[in-house]
Design a protein that fits this description.
524 residues; alpha/beta; two-stranded parallel ribbon; 12% strand; globular; glycoprotein; Peptidase_S28; AB_hydrolase_fold
């Protein structure tokens, strides 16, 4: 995808691959032993998943999953730890089978097995050979929830006792972050008898059309000088646009390396690109693209940093123009790459599978929204006032013309009513949030939302970023993340200790007026 084409940042957490070298063994031991431990018992498999859970006669498709069961020795009846990465090919997420993540820590703590399941219509998990609108008929949040239930009730894992791991035989723990964190919460709400416990990190449980708040944690917690100068530059752009002086606008966009970009909204929409890099930050990320951008604005040629107020619009405008010109794609095709109006481009027409952007936009445009736009008038903004929901809703129509004859408004009310939104209820659901997470305002820790932590639905917030608590080493770098991880492990452990095999009741007909009396019988 070209930088700037499409006005959406996906919610997904960072991938972790089991082959990465930076393993961490929380319980002690040598580094080499840790790596050996984490590579034993890991395999790639496929599961026959129903195409349509409302009509099983349509058949099945192959849904890839990865499994591991040898953190210690899997204890029969031990918990099954399930995660779907959500809106991505899952092949890069095998690290979530290891104790370098909370998933693996829980499996290790409880002598359980870990599974990573690819989400339908992402990666190679496709019922049909393309991603056209007709294929997407079964690409919904509810079908994804039903996938998790069907897998739990029917999968046979390739290890001793792997044929007796259904929710009737072993407790299942569902884990996810970001969209898959929301999917975790939605599933525990929607399928309360399937998963015994859940861990939802940065869970975007409230679907929102105009999600201008995406940039608020960034504005409030980034270095003040950088925040102030970004706002000053954006205000200058908006003043030039409002003046109607097309010559001044053309000169300005040319100085930013966007002379070939035709439409004003595409030009100022591209200015969000460095802001989206905030989502990639973590307590262990160190230097990053985002801070390179801030340094370009705030460190002058003498090596001196700006005060908290920033350098002001004149310096910041010139510095950002130089940064933009040097970092945007090749000059000869910037007009096509940064524009969103040419629907003949492959970005809009490519319906081949394993196109995560297209699959995610289907959920965005229909069910969840999360359009990342300018703040409301009168509120400080890092994004041009020209960028409003219609800018991205138009792109929904362009991506899926067979579905939308006009720019659609995502039906977020239906989604929030179905699963509860901010006020979702579920038993034994641990929720982790981050103060600096750009998605915080779609989580239960959003400012102005009165959702209280409770013993059966605890909420613990760190000072960190998006899904930071899922990665073990982030807890070693940030004590607030370690607290979240510790609390999560404690709650999950306590809840698992209370699990017992469910009982079923059968109707027994006997004489002496005892007809219809029910006797509980333990399931085998």
């Amino acid at each position: 995808m070209c930088i700037g084409v499409g006005g959406f940042s996906a919610t997904e957490c960072a991938p972790v691959n089991a082959s990465d070298a930076d393993a961490v063994l929380v319980t002690g031991g040598s580094r080499n032993a840790t790596c050996r431990l984490q590579r034993r018992g890991v395999g790639s498999y496929t599961f026959k998943q129903l195409i349509n859970h409302n009509n099983p006669s349509l058949g099945t498709f192959d849904q890839p999953y990865w499994a591991s069961w040898e953190f210690q020795i899997y204890k029969p009846g031990g918990p099954i730890i399930l995660m779907t990465p959500g809106e991505s090919n899952a092949d890069g997420f095998t690290g979530y089978l290891t104790n370098r993540t909370v998933n693996g820590q829980i499996a290790q703590q409880e002598k359980g097995a870990a599974i990573v399941l690819e989400h339908r219509f992402f990666g190679l998990s496709n019922p049909y050979p393309d991603l056209n609108v007709a294929s997407f008929k079964y690409h919904t949040i509810q079908q994804a929830i039903d996938d998790l239930e069907y897998l739990a009730n029917n999968v046979v894992l390739p290890f001793p006792g792997g044929d007796k791991i259904s929710p009737a035989d072993a407790p299942w723990v569902l884990i996810g972050g970001s969209y898959s964190g929301a999917l975790t919460a939605f599933t525990l709400n929607n399928k309360p008898d399937v998963f015994w416990a859940g861990y939802a990190s940065s869970a975007v449980v409230e679907s929102i059309v105009d999600f201008w708040q995406y940039f608020e944690p960034e504005r409030l917690t980034m270095p003040k000088n950088c925040s102030n100068d970004i706002q000053a530059v954006i205000a200058h752009w908006d003043q030039v646009i409002a003046s109607g002086n097309t010559t001044a606008f053309d000169e300005l966009k040319t100085s930013f390396g966007m002379g070939g970009v035709v439409h004003q909204d595409d030009v100022v929409g591209t200015l969000r690109n460095p802001l989206w890099n905030w989502q990639e930050l973590s307590p262990t990320s160190g230097g990053s693209v985002f801070f390179d951008f801030c340094d370009a604005l705030e460190v002058n040629s003498a090596g001196k940093s700006a005060p908290a107020s920033g350098w002001g619009v004149e310096h910041a405008l010139s510095a950002w123009a130089n940064y933009s010109s040097s970092t945007l794609p090749g000059r000869e095709w910037r007009g096509d790459c940064l524009g969103t109006y040419n629907t003949s481009q492959s970005f809009w027409t490519d319906t081949s599978i394993d196109n995560a952007n297209r699959s995610w936009l289907w959920i965005v445009c229909n069910q969840m929204g999360f359009l990342q736009e300018s703040a409301p008038s009168g509120h400080p903004t890092l994004v041009s006032r020209l960028i409003q929901p219609i800018y991205d809703e138009r792109q929904c129509q362009q991506m899926f013309p067979a579905a939308f004859s006009s720019p659609p408004v995502p039906d977020v009310e239906k989604t929030n009513n179905a699963y509860g939104g901010f006020y979702l209820k579920a038993d034994r659901l641990f929720t982790a949030t981050g103060l600096r997470d750009p998605w915080r305002f779609a989580t239960v820790s959003a400012d102005g939302i009165d959702v209280q932590s409770a013993p059966e639905q605890p909420i613990v917030e760190s000072d960190a970023f998006h899904c930071s608590d899922l990665i073990t080493k982030n807890g070693l770098a940030d004590p607030t993340v370690l607290n979240v991880q510790t609390q999560g492990l404690k709650y999950i452990g306590e809840w698992l200790s209370t699990w017992e095999p469910p009982v079923v009741s059968v109707e027994v007909n006997v004489d002496l007026n005892f007809k219809h009396r029910a006797y509980p019988i333990p399931r085998r």
